[in-house]
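Example 3.2
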Amino acid sequence: MKAVILAGGLGTRLSEETDLRPKPLVEIGGRPILWHVMKIYAASGFDEFVICGGYKASMIKHYFANYFLEANDVEITTATGQIRYLTSQPLENWKITIVDTGLQTMTGGRLKRVAPLLQGTTFCLTYGDGVSDIDIRKLVEFHKSHGRLATVTAVPSPGRFGILDIGQGSGVSRFHEKPEAEMGWINGGFFVLEPDVMDFIGGDDTNWEQGPLQSLAAAGQLMAFRHFGFWKPMDTLRDKRELEGLWSSGASPWKVW
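Structure, written as tokens:
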């Protein structure tokens, strides 16, 4: 099962960092937050990733293209460009597909663009800027148990986010964005999806969090996996500093590997 990661947004609320790099490459503990997200999946045995790039997508390509190079000592012959590796550090055994899904493409459109790479199978989906101590294996088991098209990880709302109305049996009856004054469960990312969810996505201008999720909920095809543990998105510089502080203290709750 492949994990699709949305990593193409502009990250305007973190402009202190994203003027120079895409938000998924902003570092926590010397590693891009995208790497942290991928490690969460790898801890549950998922090692195939499809990264939906957009803003400064080439930087994400360069990061992983040079991953082995940066990790090892090398001898370079400048006349030929030959590189001889002097060390061979053990690294993650990941298969990574990076697709430039367009600068202005919305989240649903990015997902639709990579649909052919998923080969009509069940897949995971998440954002490249949020971490959690979620057990992906349990999430997938829950998804397989209910037989619906989509599962969203629901986390307790820390503030003003889109709200999930969850009924009996974990069915999501409604998905609505950013109410004025309402608390409850929110979309924490970490989805498991069937290939037919693509039918709910129009084109590049489709926002996954609006039309598709709302339509799936209305059709009774969206279920919620409640996660009571740690979850935090990196939306602002304050969020980055909080995550950095947790990592530096050795008490990073999302380090499940």
